[in-house]
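Researcher: Structure prediction, please.
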Amino acid sequence: MYRLGLRISSSISKRNNVFTFLSMNCFSNSSSNSNSSNIHYDCVVVGGGMVGACTAGLLAQRLAPLGATIGLIESSSQLLLQTTNHVPSNRVCALSPSTQRILNSLGAWDVICDKYRHGTISYMRIADALCCSSNISFTADNKNSCLAYTVENDVTLSALNTILNQLSHQGLLSLHYGTKISNIEISKMDENSYLTPPVNITLDNGVSIDTNLIIGADGFNSIVRKSADIQPTVYNYSQTAVVATLRLSTDCYTVAWQRFLSSGDIVALLPLDDEWCSLVWSLESSRAQRVVGMSNEEFMQELNFVLREEKYENNLINMANNLLTSLLSFQKEQQLHHAVPFINSVADNTRASFPLAISHSNQYVKHRVVLVGDAAHRIHPMAGQGANLGFGDSECLTNLLVESHSRGVELGDIGTLLNYETERQRHNLPIQTVCHGLHLLYSMDIAPVVLIRSLGLNLTDSADFLKRFIIRSASL
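Model: Predicted structure follows.
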């Protein structure tokens, strides 16, 4: 459960910028800082992935003009795509309209549209393999041109990095790429004193950085979270996600599919453009390696089979659902126009896999420390909300920091951070809980459970107001 921290408002307004040092762009060798024994930033973001880059960009755009100094540390080199390859990458996110709005506010969405590519989802169908008549569909309404935007992770990150470089050249952001962290020293909060030592970060090139606030955006194995002694609760699904880039047989470049299989597997197809779609296939880890090792032809045949398998359907459950459909006069003609397409081919060298787990940190913050994205929480990919939750963290944290900083409150103030923790846990935990519950529910093949979930899915499909609520909730 989320921690409702006490709101601690600082009565003393201090801006600890005495030792502020504004450095320009520091790339992989950090040569501009090689002669500096100590640097001070008001805020340092650790991790230059999508969420970290977004966080650094938002802070640089909105906090740096107010006098704050912002730094970003990333161990790998900076990714900047000159153009997109003909065959899309196998790592794709379904970005919600809210995430698109955040990227647009940064200027990154214009980069994606002008220089790269993206797809849109205007229709989505979800089905249960144990009951052919049990399914639900979602359609974009007039207010939303699409349900989600499909963008390759590399494209999103490259667009964000383009914006970060612009901010760096303007003197609003300092970038440290290709630099690993050797140590993070976080002093405990002194209850008897308002003044607490800043966080000290030692880089592997010998540079020492002090900061009033360190933001951990460095993923599930976060060094920031470990240094702050924040322990996540982790549940391993014993499943592996197999991803690949596929070419479909029909023109369905705005339609997404998801099917819950009798084995507990989940297969999802996300459209990328008029030629390609992205696959996310969650299955038992013991079977995943066999699937990844198949030839392209074997993999295509297996995938086409599981997208249509009917041998495990329960006739009694189908009869009950058909009766309910008849009694309630469900209208499902629209779904007839969106039959699951056949997979024509699998792009070479696009198959990969990664283990699935859910995790949540009971604490998102400590004094001068805050976590965002996967460093704070992970979620099953079935709902496509993992990245969206992280981008939401970035925006929420930025809003609260800007508001408190404008009142003269020091960055790193525990009261501001606790407000962030409460707001985001209230948003993230329900979504994690629902996704985890759905995963467990659809992992069962017990007839009464299948009947209840099938009837529930059809009832939900008949309630347009409920589907609109689900769409709005997923778009936040």
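Model: The longest strand covers residues 232-248.
Researcher: Thanks, that helps.
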